[in-house]
């Protein structure tokens, strides 16, 4: 889903070559050296009592897996709650609470549940728990953004002592990938019903099955998880006993906490921290499925005029952003979905992508478009997260350059809580014309992102609508052949590039830092859904 994620921040790789097996490198946009990509690290050998990990976006609003669509929540929940399947390396589907799934016809999936799997309180996982959990996500009253997968769902029912059957109304090639995501994370029905609205809160807690169980949540200070020694997955033995998550959102304070060792690690480390962290621990980079982009939220204001959107696209300093802001660990984007997310039919996607216009700044074009459009001169409110230094700089650059082109862009910095609300609440988006964020695909399938801009989609915040676009996406959802599906998707991609309901800017690497005493964690985008802490431990 098109959910927010702090940008993978830029730097030269510091002190990691002895730790990491790497690929990549070279020269990136702006002439800076691109970092090496870490593909392996030594496995941990020593037990660790407590690891303190910081959430870069601050304190989560909830630990309910159905509401874990924000990085601050996902990073925690991924170690507690599980779906029917999980992602292995390369996004390969692997069994979790289901040992297998049968697909007897294009509309039917039959899950065979794992015998002996229990919740943290020792109660067995039942088909009723699975069905309850999936239906709970679909309840509009809950407001889960994970509802998007189920546009073509007909029913889900228990069909045996260890079986659950899912029926679709029409074929949908995306559905199987969601079996490993929070849309199918299983919670204990009796516990959730008793907790009611308190489920997922500091008071109500959660009840899942994963390798770490909910310990305590001291609001404003930390969340503690404790290792679940009764986890069904006996092939994996976590080395870390307790995880303590802190909520330091200020980049300078993050830097101080990491440098002093008060915090052991963090995903998406701010750029200013790199110099101070040099030689102290391990700063590693991995491939990212994340684009940084502008989303049009208001089609009735200035941006309702295509000329205004085109002017904005033309005035962005892509070279400066990728070279100066991200220091070479980013590339400009020609389309919303980055090349790293082409999980199949790469030749089809590459040919179409290369045919799109190269993103370059053209102030002359921007001024000309603005001069011919009275609406383009109206005020445009641009919202962004003030907790992400790079995005604050990008927003400021856009506002300054817009002024040179004759446009009036007013900046609206958001707190972590306000930023998260933008993805769930129409009221939070009121008065905002343009939204800068870094999203991410959940798996390398471009269709996943493009489907969310069809008419009526949950994430189609501005109400963008194009019949030809909708038809291409709908056809792709029912097309199993990779090359044929890719051709339909690039058709939709071309329409979106023409209409600009979003304006792509760049794609960066995901990064992680952890202290010198630790090892085992390889930076991958799927840390948001897989129990990454089970790989971490002492040397």
TrEMBL record:
Keyword hit for RNA-binding: no
**PROSITE patterns documented for this protein:** PROKAR_LIPOPROTEIN (PS51257)
What keywords are assigned to this protein?
Answer: Signal, Transport
Its subcellular locations are:
Cell envelope
This protein's record includes keyword Signal? yes
Pfam families under this entry? SBP_bac_5 (PF00496)
**Where would I find the Solute-binding protein family domain in this sequence?**
94-457
Checking InterPro entries in the record gives: Peptide/Ni-bd, SBP_5, SBP_5_dom
Would you indicate the residue range of the signal peptide?
A: 1-20
Record family assignment? Belongs to the bacterial solute-binding protein 5 family.
- The protein's name: ABC transporter substrate-binding protein
Q: Whose protein is this, by species?
A: Actinomadura parmotrematis
Q: What is the lineage of its organism?
A: Bacteria, Bacillati, Actinomycetota, Actinomycetes, Streptosporangiales
């Amino acid at each position: 889903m098109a959910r927010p994620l702090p940008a993978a921040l830029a730097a030269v790789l510091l002190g990691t070559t002895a730790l990491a097996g790497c690929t990549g490198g070279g020269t990136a946009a702006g002439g800076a050296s691109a970092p090496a990509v870490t593909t392996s690290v030594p496995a941990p050998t020593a037990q660790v009592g407590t690891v303190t990990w910081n959430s870069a976006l601050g304190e989560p609003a909830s630990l309910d897996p159905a509401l874990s669509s924000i990085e601050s929540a996902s990073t925690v929940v991924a170690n507690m709650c599980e779906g029917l399947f999980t992602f292995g390396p390369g996004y390969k589907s692997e069994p979790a609470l289901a040992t297998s799934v049968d697909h007897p016809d294009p509309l039917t999936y039959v899950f065979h549940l794992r015998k002996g799997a229990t919740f943290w309180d020792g109660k067995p996982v039942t088909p009723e728990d699975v069905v309850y959990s999936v239906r709970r996500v679909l309840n509009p009253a809950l407001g889960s953004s994970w509802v998007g997968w189920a546009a073509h769902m007909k029913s889900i029912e228990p069909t045996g002592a260890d079986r659950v059957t899912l029926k679709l109304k029409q074929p949908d090639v995306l559905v199987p990938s969601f079996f490993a995501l929070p849309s199918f994370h299983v919670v204990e029905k009796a516990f959730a019903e008793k907790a009611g609205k308190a489920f997922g809160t500091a008071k109500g807690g959660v009840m899942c099955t994963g390798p770490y169980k909910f310990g305590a949540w001291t609001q404003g200070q930390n969340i503690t998880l404790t290792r679940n020694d009764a986890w069904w997955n006996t092939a994996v033995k976590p080395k870390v006993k307790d995880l303590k998550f802190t909520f330091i959102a200020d980049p300078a304070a993050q830097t101080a906490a990491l440098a002093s060792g008060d915090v052991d690690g963090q995903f998406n480390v701010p750029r200013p921290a790199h110099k101070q962290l040099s030689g102290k621990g391990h700063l590693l980079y991995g491939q990212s499925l994340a684009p940084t982009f502008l989303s049009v939220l208001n089609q009735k204001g200035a941006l309702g005029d295509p000329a205004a959107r085109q002017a904005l696209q033309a005035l962005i300093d892509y070279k400066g952003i990728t070279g100066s802001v991200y220091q070479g660990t980013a590339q400009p984007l020609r389309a919303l979905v980055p090349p790293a997310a082409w999980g199949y039919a790469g030749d089809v996607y590459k040919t179409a992508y290369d045919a799109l216009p190269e993103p370059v700044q053209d102030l002359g074009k921007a001024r000309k478009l603005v001069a011919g459009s009275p609406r383009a001169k109206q005020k445009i409110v641009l919202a962004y997260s003030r907790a992400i230094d790079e995005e604050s700089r990008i927003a400021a650059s856009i506002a300054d350059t817009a002024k040179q082109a004759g446009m009036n862009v007013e900046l609206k910095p958001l707190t972590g809580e306000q930023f998260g609300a933008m993805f769930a609440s129409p009221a939070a988006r009121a008065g905002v014309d343009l939204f800068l964020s870094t999203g991410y695909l959940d798996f390398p399938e471009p269709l996943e992102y493009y489907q969310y801009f069809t008419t009526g989609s949950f994430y189609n915040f501005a109400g963008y609508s194009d019949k030809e676009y909708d038809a291409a996406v709908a056809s792709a959802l029912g097309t199993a052949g990779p090359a044929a599906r890719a051709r339909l998707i690039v058709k939709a991609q071309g329409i979106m590039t023409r209409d600009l309901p979003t304006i792509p800017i760049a794609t960066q690497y995901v990064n992680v830092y952890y202290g010198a005493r630790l090892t085992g964690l390889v930076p991958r985008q799927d840390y948001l859904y897989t129990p990454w802490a089970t790989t971490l431990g002492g040397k």
